[in-house]
Write a structure and sequence with these properties.
heterodimer; A: about 230 residues; alpha+beta; Alpha-Beta Plaits; five-stranded antiparallel beta sheet; 8 strands; rod-shaped; B: about 130 residues; mainly alpha; 2 domains; 5 helices
């Protein structure tokens, strides 16, 4: 009898397992028919792989293009800064910005009238525009980079013109003493004026008071600004 | 085991001890089948799609084993140990074969399907003959 019992148990167990398997499988297959078939899933997986690869390629391309864009931007900023420095240089040459540097200070003052020296003619008692013009000419010739007279920056359109007993510079009336500031190599500027037979001597002979000084740091105003 | 005989004389209860054993076995088998099916239909976990293929081949193998067992019973050669071990080993082997076939990219489950399918029909034919002979 125990042998028979164990046989019944084994038969029942096997039958139960078979029933379980069949029903589970039945459910799984039924479920599958509602969902996505394996083939479709595989197809989608392949597609997904392809798209992922494409995405990777595209992201590589993005980084490449970003790199190029950055380079171009860098080039652009370099070009802009080059243009900016060029513009600064041009503005400096045009006298549109305040400049500073080493140079000389030349002061011309009218002769004292109460010296009693009758040899000085009255028209010489005032400093002629020509003196200033020749001073400018000499200074430019000696390599001056920027010049101002009594705070009036000398630019391309600047006039130095006698107007009665005054001199007009940049349409502004300037009066003695005339302080001429020139930026450049101080020694050369000094030499060009102080050379024997040069302007300094000439002015002294005329009785004009001349003072010439070197400066390490001069600041010249921009055109149109006081 | 005199099947027809038994059917014929069922109400008169004239069966031998062997007949009682067999009918008891079939009865219990049906109960077990119903029980397993009930459990299978009501357990909350669904078989994942990936394993449905393995399970189908395993179920086919199990079905074959059961029919083999019935045939053995008709031949009076039924052995419960051979039956139980054959049932599980066949199912596992079929599922394993399918899995290996999947890994290797060969449809090895076809081998299991063909082998067990052929045997299933052979068993059925033998069972049919036994029933018709008696």
């Amino acid at each position: 009898m125990p042998q028979k019992t164990s046989m019944y148990v084994s038969i029942m167990l096997v039958a139960a397992v078979l029933g379980l398997m069949l029903s589970v499988q039945f459910r799984a297959v039924n479920h599958a028919s509602n969902g996505i078939s394996i083939d479709r899933a595989q197809e989608l997986t392949v597609e997904l792989k392809q798209i992922n690869k494409e995405k990777e390629d595209l992201s590589i391309e993005i980084s490449d293009l970003t790199f190029k864009l950055n380079q171009i931007k860098q080039g652009q900023t370099e070009a802009i800064s080059a243009l900016q420095s060029e513009l600064n240089k041009v503005r400096m040459n045009a006298g549109l910005i305040t400049v500073s540097g080493p140079g000389i200070e030349l002061v011309l003052d009218k002769p004292d009238t109460n010296t009693g020296d009758t040899q000085i003619s009255p028209e010489l008692m005032i400093i002629q525009d020509e003196y200033l013009l020749s001073a400018l000419n000499e200074l430019w010739g000696a390599g001056a980079e920027a010049i101002s007279i009594n705070g009036q920056r000398i630019i391309a359109t600047t006039e130095v013109r006698q107007a009665g007993s005054f001199i007009n510079i940049n349409l502004n009336r300037v009066v003695p003493p005339y302080q001429i500031l020139a930026i450049g190599n101080p020694q050369e500027l000094m030499d060009t004026l102080g050379i024997t037979g040069g302007l300094q001597e000439y002015w002294r002979d005329l009785g004009i008071k001349v003072s010439l000084e070197k400066h390490d740091d001069l600041t010249l105003p921009a055109y149109g600004k006081k | 085991m005199r099947y027809f005989y038994f059917i014929q004389y069922f109400p008169s209860i004239k069966e031998t001890a062997g007949d009682v054993v067999m009918w008891m076995g079939i009865f219990l088998a049906l109960i077990g089948l119903g029980l397993g099916a009930l459990i299978g239909f009501y357990i909350p976990v669904a078989l994942p799609q990936d394993y449905a293929k393995y399970m189908s081949v395993a179920a086919l193998a199990a079905l074959d084993s059961v029919f083999g067992g019935i045939r053995a019973a008709f031949e009076d050669k039924f052995d419960k140990d051979i039956f139980v071990t054959g049932f599980f080993s066949n199912a596992l082997l079929a599922a394993g074969l399918t899995y290996i076939g999947d890994r290797l990219g060969i449809d090895l489950y076809l081998a299991a399907v063909v082998a067990f399918g052929v045997r299933l029909f052979q068993n059925l034919a033998i069972i049919r003959r036994y029933i018709l002979k008696n």
